[in-house]
Amino acid sequence: MSVELKDFRGKITVEADCVLEAINRVTGRDRSEIAREVLHRWALEEIDKHSVLAKLLRSEGLLRESEGSPAASEGIAGSRRE
Fold first, then answer.
1. In terms of Cα–Cα distance, which of 72, 78, 74 is closest to 53?
2. What is the DSSP letter of 76?
3. Confidence of residue 81 (pLDDT cuts 50, 70, 90)
4. What CA–CA distance (Å, rounded) separates 57 from 30?
5. Domain limits at 67?
């Protein structure tokens, strides 16, 4: 990834730890790289959901154009695919 990475530390379940370790052993990829990829994919899905929700709310007159997603106004949604 060429984007800035933020430091994050958190606890995970035993199952998640086992899956990360198994993928690491099979592929040789770093566990943090695997976890980062999974979280990134999830974040993109959430951004997509928010974009759809904002469009639906606007179409119903419940959201003004100026009240959109901060991500959309910062251009994040349009440049999110690697």
1. 72
2. T
3. very low
4. 41
5. 14-79
